[in-house]
Amino acid sequence: MHKDIKKKLKQIDLDHIWHPFTQMQEYGKEEPVIIEKAYDSFLVDIDGKKYLDGVSSLWVNIHGHRKKEIDRAVIKQIKKVSHTTLLGLSNTQTICLAKKLVEITPPNLKRVFFSDNGSTGVEIALKIGFQYWQQKGELQKNKFVSFVGGYHGDTLGAVSVGGIDLFHKKYKPLLFNSFKVPYPYCYRCSKTFRLCHMACLRKLENILEQKHEKIIGVIIEPLVQCAGGIIVAPKGFLKAVSKLCKKHGVLLIADEVATGFGRTGKMFACEHEKVRPDIMVMSKGITGGYLPLAATLTTEEIYNQFLGEYDEHRTFYHGHSYTGNSLACAAALANIRIFEEDRVLESLEEKIEFLQIGLKGFNKLAHVGDIRQKGMIIGIELVEDKDRRKQYPSGAQIGHKVILEARKRGLIIRPLEDVIVLIPPLSIRIKELSHILKITYDSIQAVTE
Question: pTM for this one?
Answer without folding.
Answer: 0.96
